[in-house]
Amino acid sequence: MTNTQVTLVQIDNYGPWTVTPEPRREADLQTMQSRLYADISQFVGNRGGYVFFSRFDNMIAVTNGLSMADHELLQESVNNRYPVTLSLGVATGTSPVQALADATTLVQEAGSAQDKSRRECLKGRAIETAHQTADDVQIAHFDVINATGNYTDELNAFDTFIEIEQGYAELMRHMRTAHESLSFFVGGDNIIVTCPDLTEGDYEDAIHHVEDAVDVELQVGVGRGENAHDAGFAAKHALEICRADGTRVEVDW
Amino acid sequence: MTNTQVTLVQIDNYGPWTVTPEPRREADLQTMQSRLYADISQFVGNRGGYVFFSRFDNMIAVTNGLSMADHELLQESVNNRYPVTLSLGVATGTSPVQALADATTLVQEAGSAQDKSRRECLKGRAIETAHQTADDVQIAHFDVINATGNYTDELNAFDTFIEIEQGYAELMRHMRTAHESLSFFVGGDNIIVTCPDLTEGDYEDAIHHVEDAVDVELQVGVGRGENAHDAGFAAKHALEICRADGTRVEVDW
Amino acid sequence: MTNTQVTLVQIDNYGPWTVTPEPRREADLQTMQSRLYADISQFVGNRGGYVFFSRFDNMIAVTNGLSMADHELLQESVNNRYPVTLSLGVATGTSPVQALADATTLVQEAGSAQDKSRRECLKGRAIETAHQTADDVQIAHFDVINATGNYTDELNAFDTFIEIEQGYAELMRHMRTAHESLSFFVGGDNIIVTCPDLTEGDYEDAIHHVEDAVDVELQVGVGRGENAHDAGFAAKHALEICRADGTRVEVDW
Amino acid sequence: MTNTQVTLVQIDNYGPWTVTPEPRREADLQTMQSRLYADISQFVGNRGGYVFFSRFDNMIAVTNGLSMADHELLQESVNNRYPVTLSLGVATGTSPVQALADATTLVQEAGSAQDKSRRECLKGRAIETAHQTADDVQIAHFDVINATGNYTDELNAFDTFIEIEQGYAELMRHMRTAHESLSFFVGGDNIIVTCPDLTEGDYEDAIHHVEDAVDVELQVGVGRGENAHDAGFAAKHALEICRADGTRVEVDW
């Protein structure tokens, strides 16, 4: 049974900071947000986790394998190197959506995202190493079948982008509503989803749902592991089988 | 009349690179993609342009003020510092969508995104400095009214994310279809759109369309300028007026 | 007794890469070298180690607390994100210089720094966690007494730089020859040295030696710990006592 | 005749910031310093200049081709993305050392490096585009003859480092005292020097001086140009001739 550890990463007081004393250059905000995300991706990724950029001022991570001390070090390191600080909420559960809801509540209870006095809150509980199991995380890696041939080399770049976004928006809502799962677009034509224990049938349904709703054809590789990297890497390999064999769903067990 | 210069930035042969000889660690791909985008944001932004991460392997930029020599330098600098290379197509026009379509065609004609032998193609034409005018670029900066109060401090972080995505997906399609405009989510609850000459009425329609379709309330500040930074900065200031006065649409002229 | 774990980090085939097919833009080489160093500093630093930029194509790190698996992950991550790769040699010993000599030999035996076929060699042994002790690392943090008042606010910036370099060159040779220690300039007027078990008298001698030889007045804080961060942080606090009390040598035990 | 434009880049109030409220993690300071330098290298380098890391809290740049407006943009961009700010002094002259002295004075007059209230001072004058000539900058690129064969593949990495530092310290003093030149170690076994109009004989003397004083054998390529990149690139090519032909001094005119 899955036991997903989810961390909500929220920049403190970001909205006001971006316009105080005057609005800041957009290109600089984009640079800073992206590099902050990239650093968190290295920190979390080097410990077996995945972090998703989401809205950049609020990022969502699957952090099985990271302790509360690790979370504290991340905060300290960002404080030493950026003009902003982070608040972190950590929670676990069978349902990824429930774990994220709990993590969010921990941060909300500490104060508003635009509360000038809420800085670097750190709340929650991490799974102890001794309690980690090889089933804790289930990751599904979806991509669009032959995106390059069907879209990238054919349509203008924005219409390709619209198609990918349709596929993502549809999958995101379906997986959250039907399966308590969290879906993230990660670039190209790839969507990574952290799920509870789902079956091959659940993934086939998801693919058909998206195809029927918005006419975007997905395939998916699914993996399980002790942490997001292990599960996600198995999912990548399963997806390679889809690509090689022309199948729509491949699970790694 | 607008004369938008649009550049399509496409990483060469990226799909195959990410899985050769084996799939690469996802966290590292995220880090590299984000830092590459951040660097392009600095390069383009320091010359008055805006670049949007879009799909990360394909990025779209408004590059009024950048010459073809500037584009060539960007390619050279990335080649010296990253394990990937970029192909660039540059085109201009009254319609941002048309300009992007032309830029895309230039790159597609040079070869597929996964063509091993297509590297660092650079094609197109930039607007000469002498021909730049203060009307060339129109930027609209939308955000969700009181996102912090209505969503961030209330819902779990993924459900907030879903709401913002709905608003974006709806606005993106409407602005492209009805107004030949290119819309980009830039973090938080912000969407930046590059438009041809639109009226206040056009923006009011867009806002009502999104509210009716997905129940997400937007406000917008609009600016014009010789380049994306000038237009975008004016748009940011106009948006501050919306926030202060409670209006839904503010234009900077 | 100290047991310093030292890692030599050497970029593979770097000299030839910088001029193939043509010499590369110097500013890009500087950017890449610095960012590669910064990433290694985060990776090593987040695990309690210190890495020093040294010559940038060859970097020296005190890596107590990092396992061989950690070193392998660092190589993999750099391979995924940079146009160059790293070879690593790891060795331990009472004498930091001897440990570095052993680490260097491991890499040299695998092949020349400009051997096209030597890539990502990883050799050596790390201290097992169970064998770490609070005495393993001794770090001394030197700085120039009142550098700002005596130099930075008085001389032109290059003459200040020359003075700091004199102090560094003299200290570096003395500490290596007399005390088997490795000294690194880390910016500003700061030099960090990894030492075997030295006494307060040894540090007083070092300070007097530098003052007599090049007329640069240093003070020093010294700390011990299980890893470089612990020892170095204690050293920083000891140095603050020098600054507050006007003493020349403060040890943290 | 040379007309070198030199900029002193000084981080405001850095010493106090690194220890307030407590000393900050050394690895984070190293990361931030290096990334700040890398960003300045991109900004300055993309406009034809060179910046040298020097002491990291004080950096020296050859900025022919950058206007005062460019310098102001650099300050603004750093302010938007880092927890520190920069003060800049800009001056020009036949003598690089004199230009640097003037640039330093401009910053010192605005306030101490540790003056809490001195922030983002910007003073000086840039060379107007119309007045730039192909002789303005002379760059010499020195390296150690066969460093890899003689040192890197033979000695332990610190003893190689000591040898390179000896060569640098000696060259640095000689070039400043005898020739009003500014010398900077840039990694590997490379030293880049910005000079006034020197002759081949001056470079031969410099090489013999260093060989006699510290037994380190250097070779040098020299170039001239309108800016540091043009001059430095010509110098790199001249150095390649030294490497190919076994000569000690090659000038590009």
Describe the structure using short key phrases.
homotetramer, 253 residues, Alpha-Beta Plaits, 2 domains, 46% helix
Structural description of this entry:
The structure is a homotetramer of 253-residue chains. The first copy, chain A, is α+β, with helices and mostly antiparallel strands and 253 residues long. Chain A folds into two domains: 4-131, Alpha-Beta Plaits; 137-251, Reverse transcriptase/Diguanylate cyclase domain (Alpha-Beta Plaits). Chain A is 46% helix and 22% strand. The first copy, chain A, is built from eight helices and ten strands. In chain A, helix 6 (157-179) crosses helix 7. Chain A is globular. Chains in contact: A-B, A-C, A-D, B-C, B-D, C-D. The interface between A and B is large, with 77 and 76 residues.
Walk me through the topology.
The structure is a homotetramer of 253-residue chains.
Chain A: E1 4-11, H1 14-18, H2 26-45, E2 50-52, E3 58-62, H3 68-81, E4 86-93, H4 96-110, E5 122-124, E6 137-144, H5 147-152, H6 157-179, E7 182-185, E8 190-195, H7 200-214, E9 218-225, H8 228-245, E10 249-251
